[in-house]
Amino acid sequence: MSPLPEQPLSPLDGRYRASVAGLGEFLSEAGLNRARVQVEVEWLLYLTDHELFGSSRLDHEQARALRALVADFGQAEIDELATLEATTRHDVKAVEYLVRHKLADLGLNDVAELTHFACTSEDINNLSYALTIGSAVREVWTPRLRSIIEKLRALSVEHRDTPMLAHTHGQPATPTTVGKEFAVFVYRLERVIAQVEATQYLGKFSGATGTFAAHVAADPGLDWPAISSEFVTSLGLEWNPLTTQIESHDWQAELYQRMSHANRILHNLCTDIWTYISMGYFTQIPQAGATGSSTMPHKINPIRFENAEANLELSSALLESLSQTLVTSRLQRDLTDSSTQRNIGVAIGHSMLAMDNLGRGLSEFSIDTAALAADLDSNWEILGEAIQTVIRAEITAGRSSISDPYALLKELTRGRRIGQTELVEFIDALDIGQEAKDGLRVLTPAGYAGLASDLVRFVQK
Fold it and tell me: Where's the Fumarate lyase N-terminal domain (predicted)?
């Protein structure tokens, strides 16, 4: 058997590449290296702009040319970094040399020693990760989640008045509306996405063990914490003043826990929709040319929701592992975080793939209102809750002498199916006021959804 041509090992880079393509812009090796170049360039420009260590401010064209290394970062730079790293065996050192080569090309060798000045690799890396993760979350992951929320919002408004038998513990329960149930997920996801959007992306820039030792050795008269803070915040990040060699990754743990929480809510949505489909409440819309089963031609399998479930589980497992492991680093630094962080894109990628499937699935089903109505009409016993509650109100008002309304309705309805005729006869025989009887007589399962329709307003724009 001849060997296959080189193939991608991860399905995210193979079968599902199109669904996660936007993440590669930021969370790939190339995206990380571009951010590293950005941090190196901006630090050099910061030092020269402030004319530190006898340097002179670069003119506008020189600064533009340096920043173009970031803006125009492409295959040539990727290839050069690979060549450099083959010799250095150190990815950040390769980036430093790339910037130095660019300085030489620009005739700026007089400031070359300010490249990577007083930096440990983690000064560059932690800022680069914060920049790339922030961009990936804000520009790729969050918009995908928002698109899901908007689909759910539209469904909640469209079906706010569509009554549906609820099920608690898998058993028939007080009715709701389809729209209200979708609105529950909108509300849950809105809370979590707000927490994700409020993430503080922290950065450190304080040397080998977070003490500014090399900085002070170079110039003890400068306010290095103030310089560090100004530089970090100039990148759009928040400054962390107290670290070891690494930024402590607490913000990453917080972010990944919130993203995993969003995944878990979406997972709950998938299992609910899958169940409604299996109950016949929701009907899948056949897609032209699609096959549900290789042997059973009648089937339309809920594969969108099943695929989403699987990828949400994978994503949450990775995100939760990241959030648990990244917050520990032995003493002032160990290297476990370096390997771990290389899987951030994989973790978020599975979430992206899940949302792609879920978004498609939400566009490929309809509500079977006839099935909903039939199920409601087969479960008149659920009105037992309403009847015993009205009796309690009548007792309190002095219009009834019934001693235990709950027990009375339990005897009538528990574990039994009763119809409208039997229920009306029961109501007619009750010791309650006539107005209460009249109100209960006209009550139907479909009409017993309380304020479900009105509650949708809490997510309606």
Answer: 60-308
